[in-house]
Amino acid sequence: MALALQTFSTVRDANAALQAAGTRYLGGGTLVVRAANEGDVSTSSLVRVTDPGLSQITVSGGKARIGASVTMAAIARHPDLASLAPAARAVGGPAIRNMATVGGNLFAPAPYGDFTVALLALDATVSADDGETPIEKFLAGRDGNRAIVTSIAFALPPQGGFRFLKVSRVKPKGISVLSIAALIAQAPDGTVTSARIAFGCMADRPMRAVAAEKALLGKRLTKDGIAAALAVAGEGTAPITDPIASAWYRAEVLPVHLGRLLLA
Amino acid sequence: MAKVPVQFTLNGSEKAEFVDSGTTLLHALRDKIGDTSPKGGCHQGTCGACSVIVDGELRLSCLTLAETCNGAAILTTAGLAEAGVLHPLQRAFLDAFATQCGFCTPGMIMAAKVLLDHTPNPSRDEVVEALSGNICRCTGYEPIIQAVLSAARSNSQNAA
Questions:
Q1: Owning domain of residue A81
Q2: Which of A3, A95, A99 sits opposite B48 (nearest CB)?
Q3: How much is the pTM?
Q4: Residue A191 belongs to a domain with what CATH number?
Q5: Whether residue A126 sits in one domain with residue A65
Q6: Dihedral, CA of residue B100, residue B106, residue B108 and residue B110, to nearest 10
Q7: N or C: which end of chain B has fewer CB within 10 A?
Q8: Looking at the structure, do residues A103 and A85 belong to the same domain, yes or no?
Q9: Is the pLDDT of residue A2 over 80?
Q10: Cβ-based interface (< 8 Å): residues of B facing A
């Protein structure tokens, strides 16, 4: 079935058009047009918004707000978002990064959506016309979401406090075996005072590693200090199986890579 | 299905076509306009064979809808040669045996062109990174990397 594209200048009008059955929002096209090319006939109509506000990045007072249409390439080259650049560069190759948007990444099914893993660790807030939602709640309900995401906001991590790792088999770029993001605060003596860790590919969408986070509190980032966290890293995970890796393999290597990220 | 007008410049010349709404740029270029240099490989954004340059940025034409390119300046490999003289990248690909079956070549050359436009003297790592979205099943990549590095060297010699 052919697709019809409707273009709107405001999110409000596009949200109204999105209520029709068989309609999907078109961001960069790397998920939606791909699905159409693969023969997905459940979508007959695409909606997009040209409002330039959706492509803006604002950084002030230690907070960043990224418009939903901002591309991975724009994040990777933004001087104030250097801590997030590794996560933005982890997405696709150069052409994909020029197209793929932050808003779209929120909806990318595993093994995609590496950037959202970073946003989950940063406890981002997802904004739409109907209000703001914490990212964890947003991800849990994303399948039923019908309101266009307009922006994502988060507090910029302190220097050295944010870590990101994507594991793939093909170098330099490949699809994720898994990805891990961690926001860790430490006391001057190195003791972990807070930890927020997110995994990609360990479920059908990015998930928090709640047990590992808890096990890190009060510990130092040493081989012995992280042992308890690694032991419970797999708790609550349900890794995907795909041509890149089996669920068994992902579960086996998760503690290894989490260990490398925490000791780096 | 409603036809929609699409107007852009392709390799410097004005193009105007009516296409079905939802038509990909790849389809419009190949089947409407007749520029078959971008190739349709995977249609999933994985292989890079359809890469073109839209307003100075590398894009996958198989995942780009033609009607979102209204007013854009599009470059494809078919527009690189001038008056029958190959572009330095095309020359370098030939000289370095960087082309075997040739299917990935136009996408590779577009990816390399964007790199050299912004980074005239790239490191090997920068070349590898720039080509990381393009798959080649023939060459093992090394001749392609060497071709891009050699085109960069010959560009800088010509500029000196």
A1: 52-155
A2: A95
A3: 0.95
A4: 3.30.390.50
A5: yes
A6: 160
A7: C
A8: yes
A9: no
A10: 1-2, 4, 20-22, 24, 43-45, 48, 51, 57-60, 62-65, 67-68, 111, 114, 128-130, 132-134
